[in-house]
Amino acid sequence: MITGKTKVVGIFGWPLGHSLSPLLQNAAFTAAGIDAVYMPFPVRPERLEQAVNAIRALNFAGVNITIPHKVAVMPFLDELDPGAQLVGAVNTIVNIDGHCKGYNTDAEGYIRSLTTQGISISDRTAVVFGAGGASRAVVAGLVAHGCKKIVIGARNEIQAANLAKAFTATTEISGVNWASEPFKKALGDCNLLINSTPLGMSSYTDHAVPIDWAKVNSEAVVSDLVYNPIMTDFLRTAKQRGHIVVSGAGMLLEQGMLAFSLWTGKPAPKAVMEKVLYNALAIQL
Question: I need a surface site. Which of 54, 110, 201, 283 has the fewest CB within 10 A?
C-alpha cells in the first residue's frame, strides 16, 4: 500500500514505452520488503531541468535516466560520481535532502554481465561496434577493468576517433570506420566482440550489424547490448558459428541491481529481478 511514507523512485526518458525498469525495480522493492514505488515519468527534453528540480521538491529517493537525457541531465545535478564523469553520462540519480548526485551504472553493469558468466576482461583485445553513449559506457568499463586493446568501429570515423581520444589510459584505443581494412583486421585479432548499436533491436529488424563473420576470430566472445529481442541475429549467427554469446539482458539486470543498491543501501534481490526480467522477455530460465 502506498502511503505518505512510501519512497518514490522513477525513470526519466522520452519516450518510455519500452522500459522494463519499473517491472524490475518494483519486484525488487517488494522482495526486499522496502516501502518504495518505481514510476515511469516521460520527460520532454525541454522540461528536463524542471523534472530534476521536481526530484528535490517532491523528495524522490532518486531516478534512473535514459535516452535522450543521459548527457543533458549532468549540468542540473549537484555532484557527479567519478564513474559518471569518466563515462560522460548519468543513468542514475540519488537524492539526499535535496542534494542530487549522478552515477553511471551502465559501465560496471556491462562488465558484470560478462564476469558473472566467467568471462574475464583483463588483457583482452576488444572490438566495439558503435560510437554513441552506450559505446562510451562499454569502453569506460573495459578500460577500468584492464582491457589491453580496444578498436571502436562506427559508420562515422570522426565520431569513433573522438570517442577513442576521450580516454587517457594505459589501454590502447583507436577509432575507425567499420568498413575500413584496419577494422576488418581487428576482427581477426579480437577475443571480445561487442555490438553497442541499436542495430538488431526489435524496431531495427531491417538493419543488421555490418560484419564479415569469416574475418572474426573463431575464439572471440560475442556480446550484444540489445535485449529485445534477447537473441538478436548478431548473436544467433555468432552462436551458430560456435562463439560464446552474451545478450544485453545481463547488462540491463546488472545495472538495475547497482541502481537499486544506490537508492536503498541494500544488496539487490538478484534471483527475483532475473526471473521477472526473463519472464518479461518470454525466456524460460
Answer: 283
Angle at 164 between CA 161 and CA 170, to 5 degrees: 145
pLDDT digits (tens, 9 = 90+) for 36-92: 999 999 999 999 999 999 999 999 999 999 989 999 999 999 999 999 999 999 999
Burial of 31 (0-12, 13-18, 19+ CB in 10 A): middle
**Which residues is 12 bridged to in the sheet?**
41, 65
- 5 among known catalytic residues: no
Name the β-bridge partners of 150. 126, 173
Say whether pTM exceeds 0.90. yes
Exactly one of 7, 70, 165, 239 is catalytic; name it.
70
Q: Cα–Cα distances in Å, from 93 out to 12, 49, 63, 78, 140?
A: 10, 13, 5, 10, 19
Sign of the Cα torsion 83, 101, 31, 28 reads negative
Cross-strand bridge partners of residue 173: 150
The rounded distance, in Å, linking the Cα atoms of 178 and 168 is 22
